[in-house]
What does this fold into?
Amino acid sequence: MKVIIDVKVKELKRAIEFYRDKLGLPCRRQEKDWAAIMIGDAEIHLYLHAGITSGLEFYVDDLDSEVKKLKGKGIIFFSNRDMPSFVSVDENQITEFPWGRNAFFKDSEGNQLALVKDF
It folds into this structure.
């Protein structure tokens, strides 16, 4: 698994410049409302969208298998139609985006987590 840290920002351009120019972290991808900053094998996702909650995302090789495994342990998944670039949601509540599919769930304290599979 690979960890992604989500960070809310007021001005995306300014945030990218800070992480890239001040901290020396490369920008892997930039979209209209978010950007991916690399930090070793992990990423920091900068989100302009104010409705995004901070959380953790875990890259997985087989999203459907991982969702099935966690459902077997009582994890409840939900769609996230409020995220930037939302495309669709399938019958397992897996949310599709232009870059891949995410399965959202919460930890015991209500923090939002996600399993992620890039296309």
The chain has two domains: 3-47, 59-118. The mean pLDDT is 87. The chain is about 15% helix and 40% strand. Residues 67 and 103 are 7 Å apart (CA to CA).
